[in-house]
Structure formats: C-alpha cells, structure tokens
Amino acid sequence: MKLQVAMDLLTVEDALELAAKVAEYVDIIELGTPLIKAAGLSAVTAIKNAHPDKIVFADMKTMDAGELEADIAFKAGADLVSVLGSADDSTIAGAVKAARAHGKGIVVDLIGVSNKVSRAKEARALGAKFVEFHAGLDEQSQPGYDLKGLLAAGEEARIPFSVAGGVNLSTINAVQRAGADVAVAGGSIYGAADPSLAAKELKAAII
Fold first, then answer.
1. Which of 12, 81, 94, 167 is deepest in the core (most CB within 10 A)?
2. What are phi and psi of 201, to 5 degrees?
3. Which SS3 state, helix, strand or coil, does residue 106 take?
4. Mean pLDDT of the chain
C-alpha cells in the first residue's frame, strides 16, 4: 500500500517546505484543491521539479471540461489528476483521454456520492486508474463520523482504491486490511508538530 500526503496548504513556499520534510516517507505528493486555487498550477510544477521521483497528484476535483482541465494539469507536471465521481460520465471519459495521451492517470473522487460502490465500479470501467473513497473535512467534522463506512465500501467495490478522511496512526492498519492501494493522510501529517516524524511513523506502520 502506498502512502499519499495531502497538502491542504495555501502557498507554494509552505508546500515546498512540507514536501521536503516528508518526501522520504511518502510515495505520492498531493496538492490539495485549496492550494491549487490559491497558488495556481505553478504549484504543481514547483513540486514536481523539486521531487521528480515522486508521483505528484493535482487534486483538481474537476466537474466539467474533463479533457481540458486534465490536460492543463498534466502539462503542469501532474502524474495524477482527480475528477469528481458526481461528474457526468463524459467528463470522466474526457479526463481519461487526456491521461492516456500523456501516459498519466485519473483518480475519480467519490466525495459527496451516495452510492459509492456502484459509482466506483462505473468509474473504473470508464478508465480511472483508481477511485478515492473520500470524506471531506466538512464531513469529518460532523458528529458521529467514522472511517469504517468508507473502508467497507472500498472493500465491497473490489477495484483499485484509495481512502482519504481520517487516516492516521490509529486507522492506517484498518485501511490496509480493507485492501486499499493508497492511504491518504492529510492533517495527521501537515498538522503534526513534526510532519517528518508523523510521515515516518505512518510509513513504518504499513506492513
């Protein structure tokens, strides 16, 4: 199972600083949507230039113009680009077309999708490299939120998937047992007093 750091920061400088601290321990460096909106796709280029050996994920959360938006992100240096699972099939297919032209990959993000298992299978059939079972920050802040629902859905879907939304030292083993291909850690790394140590411990916990 790969470890992905989600950098929900707002400046290229902060992103480069965090990436430098954790790159040794992560496989995928994700530029969060707020960072891309605040700093633009130059942030993707900066991270890829600094860490050419890492998989760089542009969390575009594309909802329309799939081929165009994916193409822009790939040209900026992204290896993976996200499209929302709630988007039209043609949007996902367009993004996949761009990915194939660049030799890259599309991740379909199921944030806000009610029937995650069904949509995950459809997204995979449309050409997604993997599907992200994702609970956003707002959902995670609601009383009673539990990662178990995402893990159960991922396990049931039986397609390549990642999990994002509460991955930390206490849950990463459950993520792996569910069969996830990628564990996405955000706040548990960038919000830690020592992000480098946090990433190291998460990586070491993966069997």
1. 81
2. -65, -40
3. strand
4. 97
| Side chain identity at residue 167, one-letter code | V
The rounded distance, in Å, linking the Cα atoms of 16 and 140 is 26
Sign of the CA dihedral with 97 first, then 98, 103, and 105 last: negative
CA distance 132 to 163: 6
Compute the average pLDDT of residues 78-90. 98
pLDDT 10s digits, 11-53: 999 999 999 999 999 999 999 999 999 999 999 999 999 999 9
DSSP string, 25-92: G-SEEEE-HHHHHHH-THHHHHHHHH-TTSEEEEEEEE-S-HHHHHHHHHHTT-SEEEEETTS-HHHH
Q: How far is it, in rounded angstroms, from Cα 135 to Cα 26?
A: 21
Under 8 Å CB-to-CB from 71, ≥6 apart: which residues? Answer: 98, 101, 102
Name, in order, each residue with C-beta under 8 angstroms of 167's C-beta and a sequence gap of 6 or more. Answer: 147, 175, 183, 184, 185, 186, 188, 202
Structural tokens at position 36? 């891309």
Query: Tokens 């190291």 appear where?
Result: 200
Q: Which residue has the tokens 């900066």?
A: 46
